[in-house]
Amino acid sequence: MLKLYYARPSAYARPVWLALLEKQLPFELIPVDLGGGQFAPEFLALNPFSHVPILVDGDFRVIESLAILDYLEARYPSPSLLPTDAMILAKVRMVQLVTFNELLPAIVKLLIQDENSNEEQSAELPYAQLRAGNTLSFLEDLLGNCPYFAGEQLTLAEIVAGTLVHLMPYLGVPLTNYPKLKDWSERLWVRPTWQQIALSAEEWSSFKRRMRVIPKIWQRHRRQRMKALSQKT
Q1: Buried b or exposed e, range 67-97, using 16+ CB within 10 angstroms
Q2: CA-only gyration radius of the chain, Å
Q3: What order do you get walking across the sheet with 27-31 strand by strand?
Q4: Residues 28-69: pLDDT tens digits?
């Protein structure tokens, strides 16, 4: 059986979890505590870069969210989550990459802002808001009047972008300025598969609190990892 090492709030793990559900594949969820569990020796043996998700399929192990999604599509092609038309496939890939490379960094910045932020952090807030808005505008235009980015087919574009776009109103970026994207997001979140990965209000609050301390956790463990790696060389 497939095994997915994940954390419920992880922006990189949730698309893989959702793809497994949409493909109706049997799998086992193995939770990882991102408060430090990703630095445990047994986890580092699976992923030396200390992050989720990890997919284990028999003797084969895959890391990195987009690589796992491609593996699942190639290994378990039905139901398909990728179009075959070149231009539509390019649209799907653009959505995936823009979501992870542009929208997600903006979301992280918006998440870690609070009333105790220093001047440098506060100066980054307007840029994060502009970056999020620019990405949402791009996605709104790319979606057009279609129900999905690939037209009538739900694809990996929805799997990746759909897990993040709906969070924007909770971060002070309403979707009212992006009506097509707003309707698209609402259609996705009534699907039973999407409801399975939905975060409760308590989980969302806990995740936001943890995001504000994660940089400190990473800095501490980074120093430890640098020491350990230097001893290997």
Answers
A1: ebbebbbeebeeeebbbeeeebbebbeebbe
A2: 18
A3: 27-31, 2-6, 54-57, 60-63
A4: 999 999 878 888 999 999 999 999 999 999 999 999 999 999
Domain total of the chain = 2
> Which phi and psi angles does 7 have, rounded to 5°?
-135, 135
DSSP state of 52: S
Provide the pLDDT for residue 233.
Answer: 60
Tokens of 178: 């992006």
Q: How far apart are CA 73 and CA 117, in angstroms?
A: 42
Q: In CATH, what number is assigned to the domain containing residue 170?
A: 1.20.1050.10
> Which residues form the domain of 28?
2-79+199-232
- Nearest residue to 34 via CA among 59, 9, 60: 9
- Higher local confidence (pLDDT), 99 or 220: 99
